[in-house]
Amino acid sequence: MVAEKTPVIDTLTGSFLISTPKMPDPRFEEQVIFICAHSHEGAMGIAVNKPNPFFSLSEILRTANLPVPDGELPPVHIGGPVELESAFILYQSDYQAEHRLEISPTISLSRETKILEDIAFGRGPDKYLFLLGYAGWGPRQLEGELLADGWLTLPADDHIIFDVADEEKWRMAAMLYGIDISTFGDMIGYA
Q1: Which three-class secondary structure string do you get for the chain?
Q2: Across-strand partners of 88?
Q3: What is the C-alpha separation between 167 and 29, in angstroms, rounded?
Q4: What pTM, to 2 d.p., does this model score?
Q5: Minimal CA–CA distance to 108: which of 20, 188, 37?
Q6: CATH topology of domain 18-180
Q7: Could you tell me which InterPro entries the record lists for this protein (predicted)?
Q8: What is the pLDDT along the chain (191 residues), one digit of tens a residue?
Q9: Handedness of CA 87, 19, 128, 168 (dihedral sign)
């Protein structure tokens, strides 16, 4: 008997995972996950299109005794089902934080509270998402899910993350590469 091997993917860091209509986990239905870290030890990503209807950034700033800046603030997002009490800020790297994970040349992720303070005082990043929680996978777990056609991997796009309306990100991320994600399951075939 030969053990089935899960193929090893070099790295998906900085890529999108777009859930397909075949996604078996309803928590990830029509989700766009931005992969922040991926190695032989597993993967970590954040959903960039799932606003949290129960929290607003202005409430979070007030709770932290910080001023609420003028203008419209982005919604608080649910980054994934893991550690929903943990806050992250995904932002364009033209703003520099001392403690950050550089995901790509243009995007970083941080949990540094100084960024929230800078946002409150108008010194923060121009484009950012405030997220609660993340999505995580153990060693080879994500690769197994990719084999089951639950996810489509595509290069990430900053415009999709920061400028497209949340309800359009899932469809638009796939359409950038000519894929109608709503019919993706009908196109899958095996040679």
Answers
A1: CCCCCCCCCCCCCCEEEEECCCCCCHHHCCCEEEEEEEECCEEEEEECCCECCCCCHHHHHHHCCCCCCCCCCCCEEECCCEEEEEEEEEEECCCCCCCCEECCCCEEEECCHHHHHHHHCCCCCCCEEEEEEEEEECCCHHHHHHHCCCEEEEECCHHHHHHCCHHHHHHHHHHCCCCCHHHHHHHCCCC
A2: 131
A3: 12
A4: 0.88
A5: 37
A6: VC0467-like (3.40.1740)
A7: AlgH-like
A8: 444 444 445 789 999 999 988 888 888 999 999 999 999 999 999 999 999 999 899 999 999 999 999 888 999 999 999 999 999 999 998 898 889 999 999 999 999 999 999 999 999 999 999 999 999 999 988 888 888 878 999 999 999 999 999 999 999 999 998 888 877 655 444 44
A9: negative
Tally of residues, the chain: 191
